[in-house]
Structures are given as C-alpha cells and as structure tokens.
Amino acid sequence: MSKAPTLEEQVEWALEVCRGKGMRRTHALRQILRVLFKLGRPVGWASLAREPELADSCDPSSIFRILVKLEEIGLVRRVGSPERSYYFMLNLPGEHHEHIICRECGKIENVDIDCPVGKLEQKVGRQTGYGQVYHELEFFGICPDCQLPPARPRAKAR
Ligand SMILES: [Zn+2]
Ligand SMILES: [Zn+2]
User: Fold this and answer.
1) Could you tell me which of 87, 64, 95 has the C-alpha nearest to residue 138?
2) Distance from the alpha carbon of residue 35 to the mean position of ligand 1, in angstroms
C-alpha cells in the first residue's frame, strides 16, 4: 500500500507541473499551491488572498494573475457562477467532488457523495469522441448559517 503524499510532496509535484509549462517558481506560486492543497476545496480569490500564508507576502492582484495562469495550464479550474461569485480549485487527476453553494453568503463546500454521473461522463466521451471530458455538478441552497431561526411555535387552536 502506498501512503498518502504529504502536503509538501503535493506542492512539489504541482510546482514541477508548473515548471514543465514554463511558469516561474516563485514564492507566491508556492504559497498559493500550498493553500489550495491545504484547503482541499474551492476557494474565492479574495478569501484565498486573506489566508495567513499569503496575506503578508503576496498582493491580491499577483495572486489573481497566478490563478489565471494556473487555470490556463489546467492545474486549476474555476467553479461557481460567473455572475455571482466564482471559486478556484485544484484540478487533480482522479479527484472529483460535487459542490454545494449557498445562495445567500456565496460559500461553497464539497459534498461527499458518490458521483452519480461518472458512467454518463464516460459515455459522453465515447459518443462525442471528446477527450478529457469532465463535468461539474453544482447544488445550490441556503446554508444552515444563513437560514432564519425557526418560527416560534404558535398557540395550538383548540
Ligand atoms: Zn450561507
Ligand atoms: Zn460528479
């Protein structure tokens, strides 16, 4: 059995991927990758920039530029709705989560369910001849924090 790679190993792997695509190995790049691996879920640009690993040493606009570059080379992808808020997440081979997004506060979480459309995805690939087919399944709702407190019980009619 192989043991799970450490955070450092994962970051090193990702840095190698970046280097192979011609990206410079900068402090900001390393820190962004580290935070994305650490969080393990999609994250908005602004909250990423507020993470302690990044807040002191990297300015938000360079973080954004790096995210866009990471998206171009396929290591990161964007999820969420463009007109509201979108999130960046690592695009790792063999790793896949569905997401749920709160319509009130815009937070996003992984949903731990077996992907219901894995088979369908393969079928779509076969039928269309497309390679590297993937899908995004997003659920929307109101998160527990944003739900109003339950209404006070009313006096029972007799
Ligand atoms: Zn919410
Ligand atoms: Zn899925």
Assistant:
1) 87
2) 22
CA-based nearest residue to 27, from 42, 15, 44, 40: 15
In order of their start, the domains of the chain are 1-92 (1.10.10.10), 96-145 (3.30.1490.190)
**In this structure, which ligand is nearest to the CA of 111?**
2
C-beta neighbour count of 24 within 10 angstroms: 10
Cα torsion 116, 3, 18, 88 to 10°: value is 40
- For the entire predicted model, the pTM comes to 0.78
- Residue given tokens 């659920």 in the structure block: 139
77-103 pLDDT, tens digit each: 998 766 667 899 998 877 888 899 888
In the reported structure, the alpha carbon of residue 96 is separated from the centroid of ligand 2 by a whole-number distance in angstroms of 6
From the CA of 138, which ligand is nearest? 2
Q: How confident is the model at residue 12 (pLDDT cuts 50, 70, 90)?
A: very high
